[in-house]
Amino acid sequence: THTRLLKIVAAALLLNFQLSTFNFLSAQKAYPMYYPCRCETGEWGYVDKDNEWAIQPTYDAVLYETNGGMYPVSLGGKWGFVGVSGEPLTDVAYDAAVCEIDYDKDGYKVNYAALRSKGKWAFIDVQGKFVTDFKYDEVLILNGKYIIRVRNGKKMRSGYLDVDGKEVWND
Fold this sequence. Notes:
By secondary structure, the protein is α+β, with helices and mostly antiparallel strands. 17% of the residues lie in helices and 37% in strands. It contains one helix and 13 strands; from the N terminus they run H-E-E-E-E-E-E-E-E-E-E-E-E-E. It has one helix at residues 2-30; strands at 35-38, 44-47, 53-59, 61-62, 71-75, 78-82, 96-99, 113-117, 120-124, 138-142, 145-152, 155-161, 167-169. Strands 10-11-12-13 form a four-stranded antiparallel β-sheet, with no helix packed on it. It has a three-stranded antiparallel β-sheet with strand order 1-2-3, with no helix packed on it. A three-stranded antiparallel β-sheet has the order 4-5-6, with no helix packed on it. A hairpin with a 2-residue loop joins strand 5 and strand 6 (78-82). 23% of the residues are buried.
């Protein structure tokens, strides 16, 4: 019946919320949670839960999405990543930056972040070390996984990057 279906959907949504809350709280154990904040002079940085500057406001833009202590920052239209104390993980010299927190059965797993340069994407680890070359035409994030796509002539080859940084293709 319609009422029973609504109850099932409501229970599924509640369970999903509870799991998301558990994962969010578990993630905080591994790395501090910082929030984007703009200061009075217009620069952006990140504040901690007590609204204190954790990463000083010296950037033109920042993103809310962070991953394992990797914080995306922008200067002069270029992007890069800084670490939990504001130390540079990469140069701020790329066309775009994306990252996503990935959850596993234990609550939190550090994954990778992606940078785009000259129309191609590459991946870095949490230390800012490149784990791939700039070779992907598209990078999408779906359920905490990085979907990768490479143009091969007229066709697109699709796959994903696994937790070890290895390509898994859907051929």
